[in-house]
Amino acid sequence: AALFDANKWTLSRENLPFGEGVGLIANQSCQFALQPIVEPTQGKISSLEALIRGNDGGSPEHFFNTLDPEKIYDVDLKTKAYAFALAKTLGIGDHKIAVNLLPMSLVKVPGAVEFLVQQIKLNGLQPEQVVVEVTENEMISGFNKFNSAIKQLRAEGVGLAIDDFGSGYAGLSLLTKFQPDKIKIDREIISNIHLSGPKQAIVKSIVSCCTDLEITLVAEGIEKIEEWCWLESAGIRRFQGFLFARPQLNGVGDISWPHLAR
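The chain above was modelled as a monomer; its predicted structure follows.
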């Protein structure tokens, strides 16, 4: 753990090899900002998360609030085609891309799984490169129908991540029902973890549980080098947050990699 003493590390920025950001595609109803999830000690990008934005650059909440409630699931599903098209345009190579989905979009829209797989392949990606992220809170209603749609997706090779893990009520009991490929620990638990005994205890239990279940962990919302150092010593290897890289509209921004100060 002495290695991960915050005073020993500095950050340096690196420009990435992706194509320049692109403009809006004609008739597109939304756009995406990509944010890397990184493995800092390896200097490696583990995936790029595609975050939905309105055409005005507005937040996901704002975008969904402008929609007809009857059409939310249909629109949510269909917008993923733009995320895959952006990945193709930027030339993400064999990097993974993560997209957020409302669980009911998989259940309520006929042929949802087929649509996703078709769009993935149309844009020259492999299903194994794609991770679908759902938030813990949304997963619980309609769990059984959702579970069968997820089984179909995973049979196609697409991965599943639970986002904002620890923010809802389901928590660890969710993992008794099924095991996702990846869990992203909610930023509330991560924020200032180096100063909080209770947060540290909770994260240690998540790490130990996910190690046994062979679930990959990502800590999200990292803004301080101290948070990263504590989490890295606790055994977490993948991180997402402003400390390393901010989301960039229609592109991928610079990454700040930590280095041991000489």
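The mean pLDDT is 91.
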